[in-house]
Amino acid sequence: MMDTQLVLNGFLKRAxxxxxxxxxxxxxxxxxxxxxxxAEYAKRTRRLGSALTNLGMTRGTKVxxxxxxxHRHLEAYFAIPCAGAILHTINIRLAPEHIIxxxxxxxxxxxxxxxxxxxxxxxxxxxxxxxxxxxxxxxDKVAPQSSFENVHSYEALLAEADENxxxxxxxxxxxxxxxxxxxATTGMPKGVVYNHxxxxxxxxxxxxxxxxxxxxxxxxxxxxxxxxxxxWGLPFAAINYGVKIxxxxxxxxxxxxxxxxxxxxxxxxxxxxxxxxxxxxxxxKNPRDLSSLRLVISGGSASPKGLIQAYEEKLGVxxxxxxxxxxxxxxxxxxxxxxxxxxxSKEELLDIRASQGLTVSLIETEVVNENGLVPMDGKTMGELxxxxxxxxxxxxxxxxxxxxxxxxxxxxxxxAVLTKExxxxxxxxxxxxxxxxxxxxxxxxxxxALMTHPAxxxxxxxxxxxxxxxxxxxxxxxxxxxANATKEDLISSLEGxxxxxxxxxxxxxLKEIPKTSVGKFLKAKLRDDLKEYKVTN
Amino acid sequence: MMDTQLVLNGFLKRAxxxxxxxxxxxxxxxxxxxxxxxAEYAKRTRRLGSALTNLGMTRGTKVxxxxxxxHRHLEAYFAIPCAGAILHTINIRLAPEHIIxxxxxxxxxxxxxxxxxxxxxxxxxxxxxxxxxxxxxxxDKVAPQSSFENVHSYEALLAEADENxxxxxxxxxxxxxxxxxxxATTGMPKGVVYNHxxxxxxxxxxxxxxxxxxxxxxxxxxxxxxxxxxxWGLPFAAINYGVKIxxxxxxxxxxxxxxxxxxxxxxxxxxxxxxxxxxxxxxxKNPRDLSSLRLVISGGSASPKGLIQAYEEKLGVxxxxxxxxxxxxxxxxxxxxxxxxxxxSKEELLDIRASQGLTVSLIETEVVNENGLVPMDGKTMGELxxxxxxxxxxxxxxxxxxxxxxxxxxxxxxxAVLTKExxxxxxxxxxxxxxxxxxxxxxxxxxxALMTHPAxxxxxxxxxxxxxxxxxxxxxxxxxxxANATKEDLISSLEGxxxxxxxxxxxxxLKEIPKTSVGKFLKAKLRDDLKEYKVTN
Lengths: 537, 537
Description:
By secondary structure, the first copy, chain A, is α/β, with parallel strands linked by helices. The first copy, chain A, is 28% helix and 25% strand.
């Protein structure tokens, strides 16, 4: 067999050859929407490759992007790796010291920054050690004023560049193509490097009928940011499969997203549950025509069952939960139904949909505890570990590699059970799990149950030290405004739903649960605040 | 990223873990149909791996199969490559001297032969130089009487073998996994070796929504033989995606195939046009319920438009033409519609369907002539060349490699044009093309036109030498029984359809067109017979 290398260059060639008339709809500001064809896109991408090469980009050069979802970002997605350089997408929501850390740690030499985001980065420039050029992506050809010498206008550079620029045709598939840093619970973000092979294979994964089945017939709206695990790979899929892609740009609202779905006849969209909650509320207020939508994909955190139900029953749109992380490119599993479920009850089907799903082709998952592999019984917990051709094997130049990558597996730090169908159901994070008398208690299960109580706004359950049982659960609850409930009310609402020894020893009432910058519970803080807490009864 | 190897072993593990209850329906004789689950299949495959290992199979051992489509053949499809050995599927329809040649050339050490086919092979045994064991696949545990010492019963071997046999977990993806010989126009068949990587990637190709979209929801009926380019890859796809598979065994009829579709609720099936013609005729006589069928795939030779139309309009079943060859695993392109065609007329759509289609992901095709790449104009002819990760790079130990594999491309010997949408349309074989005055004339186009004449049964158009124009077309026609047509009738039927210089210089009437063993026109013979022919007018 030919040893044809699995590189992104083939995707770009395919797009320009077979799908020249397909559209990229790209919003770059609240007032500006661009519509360009794949043919124009390919020429602009070649121009960008040429311009970056003129600025010194060569194989292995790291080029950072600091941008929303739009066509220029998509041009960078191909111009950089197809030239053999490395696309480093930077999370614009990180704290300034983290942004400085990752640009220096990655050793980015060129940065592509959105015009409206440039003021965010500018104060950091004096601390950046390796950056030689900054290119500002604006709709006009004017670079902003800056004390930094080499600030260029993206459109001015492109105007002068070569639209027939030839990307190299001898890239190896193991060549790094992209990188993305993921926030750590403690310390600086950790970097993951993708290579051409992993991105190409992941793109095939997205195109499989068994997963999302992305194809030329789709219109794709990635709401998940392009700085977050490559917008789950949808931009690469769009170019390879000839998919019309709609990029919502900066400061989008649920209302704008729904308008885009209706106007552009979006068939598939991807985002986090918070987005889908907002979109649902807007749709219930101001209904749009969503008949084109064949699938919404949700990931990043667990989806409440009520949300899934609302999409499937009220809006008539299949709502599929996927599981993955920065380290996994991200697609690992998804909650599609198999034919075995054709006679399941509504409730059983909802259980499946809300799970993290069935592992996709080429990826291997296992759930392990001290007794080895857990059975498919829906209740034995263990840590989820993953391996496969688009799973990271290390953190980039980082000692924390040793914690997560062992014996050829990525240890996710997620605690899971396997349903009888082999579907993954995340029950906790390793660090949040409560180990009571040698048994494990899922803090997430208890929280979910508490949050169904009508008086409860938020609930976090944490482990507190216990002399006899090592650890016992403590419920930290925020009540809804004006609502009333006692400790006894809440405890009795849990009884019957859980084994007796799962029931929290105590409930304390708080004004709010401390949270991370992306809105997740900061349980480490809560545990720290309450480390001296003793159950009084 | 992890360097996880793309090997078939993962497919088998996936099948037994996630799809243990899926069925393999397998007909092994006119009276015997087996129904086994994937769980049972996996155990039997492990037993077979163990039994073959006991007989001396090790990495690189060639194991030949000489069998119909049934579950035992499917067991061999995984037991052999998952052990690191090479599955050599032998075409049972070859002439005895070709069978002897390829078994000796491949150096098969073990043969798996169907009970009813054993008498075909037995006379050849004394000429086989490397075969040490023959295993006969029968429903009982009794090996046939033979003068060859090591003839075993498949079921007897399996009964004694280990159902927990562990396949190695350290295979490299470039390890050869299978081989298949393809008939040559002249000389002995030529061997193609597949490796694990090429088969895994080809299986992903079959699972893409843009191609056949094979998934767990399918029920697959491969009519194309498992000794012919791995039944186009469908058996590998079935195991990986958890697809119920229906294997029609020996001596099936159109009536049996239709019964299987109806009874087993087949959703996708694949075969050559001749099969689909027979199935259509039977369905028109005795209609079955075909509502489960979402797709028939046709390949191997061109499909007449009338046939496609009958499936799509009369039976309501999409009929997709695929293009490929033994050297290409085989999937290269397929005639799916793109959204651009949503407003095409019925006729335009039929033209697309009858073409060889759009090139699938990861595969690159080009059509080249002496002026370089041909434009997408639907008329400029050139030779089709192909490259990609599941395309062969050579013939196994064969000097003819140099003719077909050049500059990193497989030269197919097929003459094609590209439609304006970039779809491939095969117009001729290189050797059958007529080169007149520096221009090319497609013999196939002229034949197709002649065969629409009501009096014509068969027509072959060949090149005859010409002093001024180098070559000119000559039509060789077989009239239908009792029908009458003169040379002038036929010539005038072509006028208007073709440029004047395309019209054959003469028409001769024959009793029959010489054919190959698989029913294709033997134009080399015809050219040879007529090499002294001079146009008389």
